[in-house]
Every structure is written in C-alpha cells, then in structure tokens.
Amino acid sequence: SASLQHSRLSRVATNDRNTEFAPAAALTDAELSRRWQFSAWSGSLRLKAENLTDERYAGTVIVNQAAGRS
Hints:
It is built from no helices and five strands. With 70 residues, it is an all-beta fold. The chain has a three-stranded antiparallel β-sheet, with no helix packed on it. Strands 2-3 form a two-stranded antiparallel ribbon. The protein is elongated.
C-alpha cells in the first residue's frame, strides 16, 4: 500500500505576551508498505520518508526560555 500525508502546523507563541512566534510550516510525508505470507512464514516491509520538502520548523517550543525558565 502507499500513502501520502500533508500536515499544516500553525505558528506558535514563544513568550507569555504572545509577541514572538515560531513560524508556521507545511509538512509532507510518504509511506510504502508491503506484507508477504509464505505458508507458516510472514514478513513485512515499511518505508517512510518524512518532511519531503525539507522544510525547517519548530518541533518543540519552550515558552520564555530566554528569560531563564526551564
């Protein structure tokens, strides 16, 4: 089987005042998979490629990290 997934990530506030933001991003992933059955044996193969357009995005945001919070 084959699948294609497209996700849109909204911009995210990075401080309590909501004056600074990590930018929005659009991500596209693709996946191919195949299952085999041979008598008592079975097998599967899965290939997945993420972020096909190689877009830079914020995976995690820690609010007010620059202010010394952790």
